[in-house]
Design brief:
Layout: E1 2-5, H1 20-28, E2 32-36, H2 47-52, E3 56-58, H3 61-65, E4 69-75, H4 80-84, E5 90-95, H5 102-109, E6 114-117, H6 132-151, E7 159-161, E8 164-166, E9 170-174, H7 178-189, E10 193-197, H8 201-209, E11 213-214, H9 226-240, E12 243-246, H10 261-265, E13 272-275, E14 292-295, E15 298-301, H11 311-329, H12 343-348, E16 349-352, E17 355-356, H13 359-364
Parallel strand pairs: 1-2, 1-4, 2-3, 4-5, 5-6, 9-10, 9-12, 10-11, 12-13, 13-15
Antiparallel strand pairs: 6-16, 7-8, 14-15, 16-17
Helix pairs in contact: 1-11, 6-7, 6-11
């Protein structure tokens, strides 16, 4: 089958959806790879690397997309210009975020293309090798700590020097999913003293397993507001922290507020918050996506492009996940798997036959 890989056009995106190594795997499996020129440049992957792996280099997007087959990218086609090139002969595989943005899914369905959304991969053992979200979160969690270490006005590890003892930085991570746990592990490697919090009991054990102290907040009774109780209990921990990383996200919904303005005011001047949920409004009440906010001497960062940090490694992880999905989606006779009795297909199939077919996307867009 023809597999076309386009250059990313989203501002700040440095990843590419298919690496030269993944290209070699797909070519060996009998597929024809067409890569838009420069698609991997920002990730340190040259056109010549793709050609050596067996791909054909196309000079522009139109030439890349102009024939039937799979259309692979990190972010799916959403602009009118990009959608104009997509037809019913295409099968799109990308991060479409359709529950959050059902209008874009509806526009893609109107082209007649079949589309699988990488951000709808089920969290199951069988789908683990296709889990782009976990790969993305691994990079984002690491990059958050590296960003904080670079920006913080003090050193991270404990150091005993001739000029005196330098105490370690204190870091609190709120939300112990993949990104949060990776942030904890990275901060521990850099020598910080780390605490972590999550509302899930099993996540507290995971926090401890990567070397941090878990913050235990009792469940309230008598109908009291648990979120407010959590904020009150977390305030003294944040007041002692040099760095706070928030990483609580709910697919397709606005990020929950974990850190209020009052909690920020209680923090030390010079402290920093890095909000990994900024793209959905943020876990901190003061977060502004891709902006730097200063409040009472505390810096709040809301970066939305951390997943494309370490772009070479991030692209290789992303590509490996996509290859596994392609192996499921493309059958032995080069037809497309639309079997919704398969849990993975059912979870990820967004459009088919000119219609939005995913129940959650239909509900989110009021398409009933």
């Amino acid at each position: 089958m023809r597999i076309a890989v386009t250059r990313e056009r989203t501002d700040g995106e440095r990843r590419v959806a298919i690496s030269p190594e993944a290209t070699r795997v797909l070519v060996t499996a009998g597929h024809d790879l067409v890569i838009e020129s420069g698609a991997g440049s920002a990730a340190g992957m040259r056109d010549a690397d793709y050609e050596s792996a067996g791909a054909t280099i196309a000079p522009d997007r139109v030439t890349t997309v102009d024939r039937a087959g799979l259309l692979i990218s990190v972010h799916g086609p959403t602009s009118p210009d990009d959608l104009a090139e997509v037809t019913s002969d295409h099968v799109v595989i990308a991060l479409l975020d359709p529950v959050w943005n059902p209008a874009a899914a509806k526009a893609l369905a109107a082209t007649g293309a079949t589309a699988y959304s990488l951000d709808l991969v089920p969290r199951s053992t069988r789908a683990q090798s296709m889990d782009v979200l976990s790969s993305t979160a691994t990079v984002a969690g690491t990059q958050a700590v590296l960003t904080a270490a670079y920006r913080l006005p003090k050193l991270m590890p404990l150091m005993i020097t001739a000029a005196g003892t330098i105490p370690p930085a204190r870091l609190v991570v709120l939300g112990a999913g993949v990104a949060g746990l990776q942030a904890i592990a990275t901060a521990r490697r850099l020598g910080a003293v780390v605490e972590g919090f999550d509302i899930r009991e099993e996540a507290l054990e995971q926090i401890r397993s990567v070397g941090a102290k878990s913050i235990n907040v009792p469940v309230v009774e008598d109908g009291a507001d648990q979120a407010v109780h959590n904020q009150t209990a977390l305030t003294p921990h944040l007041a002692e922290a040099d760095i706070v990383i928030t990483a609580a996200q709910i697919p397709g919904r606005r990020s929950p507020i974990l850190v209020t303005e009052a909690m920020v005011s209680a923090m030390k001047p010079g402290a920093m918050i890095i909000d990994l949920a900024a793209i959905r409004g943020g876990n901190c009440e003061l977060t502004r996506a891709d902006e730097e906010v200063t409040h009472d001497g505390v810096t709040i960062l809301g970066p939305t492009d951390l997943a494309s940090g370490s772009a070479f490694s991030a692209s290789r992880m992303f590509a490996n996940n996509v290859v596994k999905l392609i192996e499921l989606v493309v059958t032995e006779d080069n037809t497309i798997n639309l079997d919704t009795d398969d849990e993975i297909i059912a979870a990820m199939l967004v459009t088919a036959g000119g219609e939005v077919v995913h129940p959650q996307v239909i509900e989110a867009g009021g398409m009933q």
